[in-house]
Amino acid sequence: MRIRYPKLRELKEALKAIFFGPYTSGYPHQPHHPAERFRGRPYFYKDDCTGCAACANVCPTGAIEVKDEIKNNKVIRRLILHWDICICCGQCQLSCLTQKGILLSQEFAYAVTENRQQLTTEIEKEFVCCECCAKEILPADQYNWLRERLGPLVFSNTSLLLFSLKLPVWRLPKIRVKKVNKNSSAKTA
Ligand code: SF4
Ligand code: SF4
Fold first, then answer.
1. Is the CB of 51 under 6 A from ligand 2?
2. CB neighbours of 184 closer than 8 A, spacing ≥ 6?
3. Which domains are delineated in the chain?
4. Contact, 43 vs 106, CB < 8 A?
């Protein structure tokens, strides 16, 4: 195809680059500062992670491995993040139950040449187990997260109730008692 007119837009960009410098950075000879919304290496934040594994379920490459196992007579969940197969898509951060259990950073240069095992990180979460059959129910931190939202409804499950009773009193759900107006009930009776 014949171009009838000079490519003015490209010419303008070339002139801008000559007078104001190139768009590209001088990395690796100079440090590179990614854009504000750049998606780089993700990190777990243990205190804000409940261990629900939603991030692992949405990860398109299977970069988040979930292992439930017994350790020191406790059932624990290990969440292992494999940076070597992570594509920094951000789906884990988007779907995180607490919105801050896993967050992408701006790190982009973390390749290794020898041992891929260096490109993993992991966190552990302890499970609440059934008092009768000892089967795992859900991670304790996920339970606590739910408990704060469910309030007294958590008492509908015996195992969760017993787990609640092991918590300090100030962390137990508050029970709201409905006030009955005796005068109004007498009128309607
Ligand atoms: S950023 Fe994407 S690929 Fe990487 S761990 Fe999260 S969901 Fe998986
Ligand atoms: S709280 Fe967030 S980071 Fe933790 S397991 Fe659930 S989805 Fe993943």
1. yes
2. none
3. 42-169 (3.30.70.20)
4. no
| C-alpha to C-alpha distance for 62 and 136, rounded to whole angstroms | 23
* Shortest-distance atom of ligand 2 to CA 95: 7
C-alpha of 149 from chain center: 19
Query: How do the pLDDT tens digits run along the chain, 189 residues long?
Result: 666 666 788 888 889 999 998 888 889 899 999 999 999 999 999 999 999 999 999 999 999 999 999 998 889 999 999 999 999 999 999 999 999 999 999 999 999 988 988 999 999 999 988 777 888 888 999 988 988 888 777 777 777 777 777 765 555 555 555 565 655 444 433
Ligand 1 center to 102 CA (angstroms):
10
* Rg value, the chain, Cα: 27
Q: How far apart are CA 167 and CA 126, in angstroms?
A: 14
Q: For residues 165 and 157, give the distance between their C-alpha atoms in angstroms, rounded to a whole number.
A: 12
